[in-house]
Amino acid sequence: MKTVNVVAAVICDDLNRKSKVFATQRGYGEYKDGWEFPGGKIEENESPEEALIREIREELGVTIAVHDLIDIIDHDYPDFHLHMFCYWATVSDGQLMLLEHEDARWLDADSLETVGWLPADRGLLTRISTELEKKG
Fold first, then answer.
1. Could you tell me the domains of the chain?
2. Among the listed residues 112, 126, 121, 132, the one whose alpha carbon sits nearest the alpha carbon of residue 9
3. Which tens digit of pLDDT belongs to each residue from 68-107?
4. Who has the most CB within 10 Å: 16, 61, 69, 122?
5. Residues of the chain with pLDDT > 90: what percent?
6. What does the CA dihedral 49, 51, 54, 60 come to, rounded to 10 degrees?
C-alpha cells in the first residue's frame, strides 16, 4: 500500500491558553465535506515544518508559527496509508481565508465532536480536548 506523508496544523487561538482550535471542511476530492485540521503533502526535500508553513499559506492565506509536535498519526485508508505529522500552530501574520475549503469553525473542547471528522484527524481529538480543557 502506498504511504502518503502529510502534515496538519492544529491552529489554536493562544499557544499558552488554548481555548479553541481551527477546523476546516474539505472542498474537493474523494473526502470532500469531511472535517480536518488543515495541511497537506510533504514535498521532496522539505521538512514537515516547512511543508506545514507552505500548505497553510496556500490553503488559508496566512503565515503560521509551527510549535510542538502533538503526535504522528498512522491511518490506513482503503487506497493508501496516511502518515501525518500534527503540530500545534498559531497565526503569526494575516487573516484566515478559505482558499480551498468549503467551511471552517473555531471549536472548543465542548464542540470538537460537532463536525464530521475524517478518520485520521479523529485520532487527535482526545489529546486536543484534554489540552483545551486543561487550559480553558
1. 3-135 (3.90.79.10)
2. 121
3. 999 999 999 999 999 999 999 999 999 999 999 999 999 9
4. 122
5. 94
6. -90
The residue whose grid cell reads 503565515 is 63
Round to whole Å and give the CA distance between 12 and 15.
6
User: Angle at the Cα of 98 (from 132 to 65), degrees rounded to 5?
Assistant: 50
* DSSP class per residue in 110-134: TTGGGS-B-HHHHTTHHHHHHHHHH
Tell me the per-residue pLDDT of 2-23, one tens digit each, with 9 for 90 and over. 999 999 999 999 999 999 999 9
Cell of 124: 487527535
